């Protein structure tokens, strides 16, 4: 099979199953995190010191912000978390953040999971994450671009020729055509916030109970952060089900 067709086939497969990548990162990252803490003889006091970890959280939330901004201005049935129906693009997003980078959602995903990877404090795991993320999403982006090229032809090609794939070029900024939809962001991205805090919680709690006899789940700030995220997620789900907002 020619590489062009093989890349697209792989990309379509990975797109439909892209929700599994975070699970791999979390599983391997947790093991590396526990190993690193043990190898560096980390004390319980150091383990519960979250000052540096707030920087990692900021990196993750920077990625969530990129996603939120992209989704908020995106046209209907274009940007989202759809995984079962394959590629969806009822129109071509080319203004706003899409005028400076072709794949802002994947750029956002990168920072979200880089923030999580940083929690391991393991240089080689972070390097491995960068390589795995590049290899994984390169195929997905290729398949997505082939889909858009076939659907929008020269319109897509002109936009893609002038817009970088993953590293933004701010000077190419074009004001968004549509208006920002806060409800769309809340609805589509509610799981992103929950996943960030859930992952950090799993890292801290599992590692804490394995490595420290005196570890207390209630004394860890990330426990209460997760509680807040769960409450937020639950409220949004309830509002979605009880209202006519879509």
Describe what this molecule looks like in 3D.
It contains 8 helices and no strands. With 246 residues, the protein is mainly α. The chain has a single domain, classed as Four Helix Bundle (Hemerythrin (Met), subunit A), CATH 1.20.120.
Instruction: Work out the radius of gyration.
Output: 20 Å
What is the residue-mean pLDDT, rounded to a whole number? 87
For the sheet with most strands, the description reads: none
Q: Could you say what the CATH topology is called?
A: Four Helix Bundle (Hemerythrin (Met), subunit A)
Query: First CA to last CA: what distance?
Result: 43 Å
Taken together, the total number of domains comes to 1
3D shape: globular
Low-confidence stretches: none
Tell me how many strands there are: 0
Percent of residues in β-strands: under 5%
Please identify the structural class as seen in this structure.
mainly alpha
- The number of helical elements comes to 8
Q: Which CATH-level-2 architecture? A: Up-down Bundle
CATH top level class name: Mainly Alpha
Helix content: 55-70%
How do the helices and strands follow one another from N- to C-terminus? Answer: HHHHHHHH
Features:
single chain; 246 residues; mainly alpha; Four Helix Bundle (Hemerythrin (Met), subunit A)
Quick overview of this protein structure:
The chain is mostly helical.
Secondary structure topology:
Blueprint: H1 3-16, H2 20-39, H3 44-47, H4 51-73, H5 104-118, H6 123-162, H7 182-211, H8 221-242
């Amino acid at each position: 099979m020619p590489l062009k067709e093989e890349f697209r086939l792989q990309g379509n497969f990975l797109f439909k199953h892209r929700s599994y990548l975070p699970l791999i990162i979390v599983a391997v990252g947790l093991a590396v995190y526990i190993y690193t803490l043990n190898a560096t003889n980390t004390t319980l006091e150091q383990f519960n010191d979250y000052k540096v970890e707030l920087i990692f959280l900021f990196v993750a939330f920077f990625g969530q912000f990129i996603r939120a901004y992209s989704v908020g201005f995106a046209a209907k049935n274009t940007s989202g978390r759809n995984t079962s129906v394959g590629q969806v693009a009822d129109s071509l997003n080319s203004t706003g953040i899409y005028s400076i980078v072709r794949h802002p959602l994947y750029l956002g995903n990168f920072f979200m999971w880089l923030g999580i990877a940083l929690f391991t404090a393991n240089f080689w795991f972070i390097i491995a994450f960068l390589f795995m993320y590049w290899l994984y999403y390169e195929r997905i982006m290729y398949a997505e671009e082939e889909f858009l090229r076939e659907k929008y032809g020269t319109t897509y090609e002109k936009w893609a020729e002038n817009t970088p794939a993953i590293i933004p070029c701010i000077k190419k900024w074009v004001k968004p055509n549509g208006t920002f939809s806060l409800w769309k962001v809340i609805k589509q991205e509610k799981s992103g916030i929950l996943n960030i805090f859930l992952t950090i919680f799993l890292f801290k709690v599992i590692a804490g109970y394995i490595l420290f006899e005196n570890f207390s789940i209630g004394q860890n700030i990330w426990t209460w952060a997760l509680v807040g995220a769960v409450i937020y997620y639950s409220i949004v789900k309830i509002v979605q089900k009880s209202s006519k907002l879509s």
